[in-house]
Each structure stands twice: as structure tokens, then as C-alpha cells.
């Protein structure tokens, strides 16, 4: 799939996890959960875990995945080879090397039959069948026939698709909304999507018009009005006119969440305000965006959470 950067794609996957719920990783390979009051709510006993969405979290016990509720009670017994989070009442799971969808009781509502699948968004989910990607609705009915080399979830009414080595966007009817013409894209966020054209990155609007010319060495999505951009070896932030709002000065920068953003300075992570001033001084070996007033951070082999004052709660 087209990517703005493998390294940053991995970072964004992590960001997606920590934006969606409170989850604590463990240096010993076990995972557990904390609540909003910073108390350990579920002891670390899982090989892997997803954040909570819609009241349930995927957990891996041994080699199989199931789901728990926020008390730690197993709601759906571990039985799947892989599992996505619940979205719109359904979760994609793998059984016997095929993907299907279950409801919150663990019952298959769409039988395993796909080579790959992602989560529902706007009532549709991307699925792979016969080496091509299309979309199904919640009954399992094919709504957009498999025809794309790759397809992402819908976001803001459009979904990124890859055809003939180029990326574009379709609407929910399966009609091409923006012709495949880019070397890589990000999903739409706040009305704009990052694009790759040649060696540079810029942004388009939902009409496909280039609103910020490809000029950056890397970009991440807009959030709270600003987007991280890389110029040379350093990251800064631009506004939606493409003007620099925070000068490039960081080794790495992530999007804003709850008015602050994680940035890396001199090999350590901290947080900044939208003015570019430090909100929490760099001292962490890893840092992720805030969600519900807490952010996950790493200090050496220890993992914990901080509040917006920088107060640290070690979990491990």
C-alpha cells in the first residue's frame, strides 16, 4: 500500500491505538488496562491487547484472541487467530485463515470468507476477495465489487483506493471521486488529505484540488487545525493555508490531541502547546497523544501514564 513513510505508518498505528483507549504495555510481554483515575483496572495477563472500543477490548491469551469487558471478564472466549476492534457493533476476526465479522455476543453475522478485512465505517467495510478489494455492508452484501488493488476505511465520506499503482478516492457508491494519480495518500481528516507526488508531500481537499503544494519531505494528518510536516531533517507544523505555524525544530512530531502534541527533542519526548512552547519538558523515551486527559509514556523499560501536568504514574 502507498505510505508516507513505513516508520511513520507504524507510529500512526500506535497513535491510533492510544487515542482510542487506555492500554498499558509491559516490558515482560503482558498487557493490562488502567481506568481514568489512573488505577490498574485489569491486571496484566494478556500476550497482546487492543484498546477498548464500544465497551470491549480484544485480548490475546496464548495464541488465540477473544474479548473482555472493562471489568476484565471474558465476554467472547479466545478462539480467533486475529481480531480487530469493534466498530459500529461489529468486529473483523480471522478464523481458519479467513476473515469474517462477529457481533458483541461472539456470533458470526458475516461468515469467514475473505482473504483480508478491515473495520466498518459509515456502514461499509473494506474486504479482500480474489486478490482485489471491495466493500460490504453489515449484512455481508457486496455494495462495491472487489476491483481495487487496495482499499481503506471510509473517512469523511471518502475512502482511499489504489488502482494501477496510483492512489485516489471513491465515494460510498463506489464512484471515483478523485482520480488515482498519487503515489501515496492519507485518509481525509478535517477536510484535507495528505498526498505524495514524486518525492514530496502536500495536501488536497475533497474535490481533489491541491490546496497545499507538495513541498514537504513528510506529512501527517491535520488535527485541531494543524498538521506535522517534515522539512529536511526536522519537523514543524503548518496551518490549513500551508503557512508554518510552528517552525521546524523537532526530530519527530505527532498530531495535536487535547491541545498538546508529542514531539522528540534531543532523543527525548515531551509535549508542546500550539504556540510551540513546551507543555511538558522532554524526558521520556516514548510518548503518545493524550486521550481523556492521560497519555502513555515510556521511561527506559518502564511504561506508565502522565496527566497534563506531567505527573507520572508507573504501571510496570
Descriptive terms for the model:
316 residues; four-stranded antiparallel beta sheet; single chain; 34 strands; mainly beta
Protein architecture, described:
- It is a single chain.
- By secondary structure, the protein is mainly β.
- Helix content is 4%, strand content 52%.
- It has one helix and 34 strands.
- It has one helix at 6-19; strands at 31-34, 40-46, 48-49, 57-61, 64-68, 74-80, 82-83, 91-95, 98-102, 108-114, 116-117, 125-129, 132-136, 142-148, 150-155, 158-163, 166-170, 176-182, 184-185, 193-197, 200-204, 210-216, 218-219, 227-231, 234-238, 244-250, 252-253, 261-265, 268-272, 278-284, 286-287, 295-299, 302-306, 312-314.
- The strands form nine sheets. A four-stranded antiparallel β-sheet has the order 3-4-5-6, with no helix packed on it.
- Strand 23 and strand 24 (227-231) form a beta hairpin.
- The longest helix has 14 residues, at 6-19.
- The chain starts with 5 loop residues before the first helix and ends with a strand.
- The model is unreliable at 1-28 (pLDDT under 50).
Topology:
Layout: H1 6-19, E1 31-34, E2 40-46, E3 48-49, E4 57-61, E5 64-68, E6 74-80, E7 82-83, E8 91-95, E9 98-102, E10 108-114, E11 116-117, E12 125-129, E13 132-136, E14 142-148, E15 150-155, E16 158-163, E17 166-170, E18 176-182, E19 184-185, E20 193-197, E21 200-204, E22 210-216, E23 218-219, E24 227-231, E25 234-238, E26 244-250, E27 252-253, E28 261-265, E29 268-272, E30 278-284, E31 286-287, E32 295-299, E33 302-306, E34 312-314
Antiparallel strand pairs: 1-2, 3-4, 4-5, 5-6, 7-8, 8-9, 9-10, 11-12, 12-13, 13-14, 15-16, 16-17, 17-18, 19-20, 20-21, 21-22, 23-24, 24-25, 25-26, 27-28, 28-29, 29-30, 31-32, 32-33, 33-34
Amino acid at each position: 500500500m502507498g505510505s508516507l513513510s513505513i516508520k511513520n505508518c507504524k507510529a500512526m498505528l500506535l497513535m491510533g491505538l492510544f487515542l482510542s483507549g487506555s492500554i498499558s504495555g509491559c516490558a515482560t510481554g503482558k498487557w493490562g488496562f488502567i481506568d481514568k483515575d489512573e488505577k490498574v483496572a485489569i491486571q496484566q495477563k494478556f500476550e497482546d491487547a487492543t484498546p477498548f472500543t464500544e465497551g470491549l477490548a480484544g485480548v490475546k491469551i496464548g495464541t488465540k484472541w477473544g474479548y473482555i469487558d472493562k471489568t476484565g471478564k471474558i465476554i467472547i472466549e479466545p478462539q480467533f487467530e486475529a481480531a480487530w476492534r469493534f466498530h459500529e457493533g461489529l468486529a473483523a476476526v480471522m478464523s481458519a485463515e479467513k476473515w469474517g465479522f462477529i457481533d458483541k455476543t461472539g456470533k458470526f453475522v458475516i461468515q469467514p470468507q475473505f482473504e483480508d478485512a478491515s473495520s466498518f465505517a459509515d456502514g461499509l467495510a473494506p474486504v479482500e476477495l480474489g486478490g482485489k478489494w471491495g466493500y460490504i455492508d453489515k449484512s455481508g452484501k457486496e455494495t462495491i465489487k472487489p476491483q481495487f488493488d487496495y482499499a481503506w476505511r471510509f473517512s469523511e465520506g471518502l475512502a482511499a483506493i489504489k488502482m494501477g499503482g496510483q492512489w485516489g478516492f471513491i465515494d460510498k457508491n463506489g464512484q471515483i471521486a478523485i482520480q488515482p494519480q498519487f503515489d501515496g495518500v492519507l485518509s481525509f481528516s478535517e477536510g484535507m488529505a495528505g498526498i505524495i507526488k514524486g518525492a514530496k508531500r502536500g495536501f488536497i481537499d475533497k474535490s481533489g484540488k491541491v490546496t497545499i503544494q507538495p513541498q514537504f519531505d513528510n506529512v501527517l494528518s491535520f488535527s485541531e487545525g494543524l498538521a506535522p510536516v517534515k522539512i529536511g531533517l526536522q519537523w514543524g507544523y503548518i496551518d490549513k493555508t500551508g503557512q508554518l505555524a510552528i517552525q521546524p525544530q523537532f526530530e519527530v512530531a505527532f498530531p495535536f490531541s487535547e491541545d498538546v502534541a508529542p514531539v522528540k527533542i534531543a532523543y527525548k519526548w515531551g509535549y508542546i502547546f500550539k504556540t510551540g512552547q513546551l507543555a511538558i519538558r522532554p524526558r521520556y523515551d516514548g510518548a503518545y497523544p493524550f486521550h481523556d486527559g492521560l497519555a502513555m509514556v515510556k521511561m527506559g523499560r518502564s511504561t506508565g501514564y502522565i496527566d497534563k501536568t506531567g505527573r507520572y504514574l508507573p504501571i510496570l
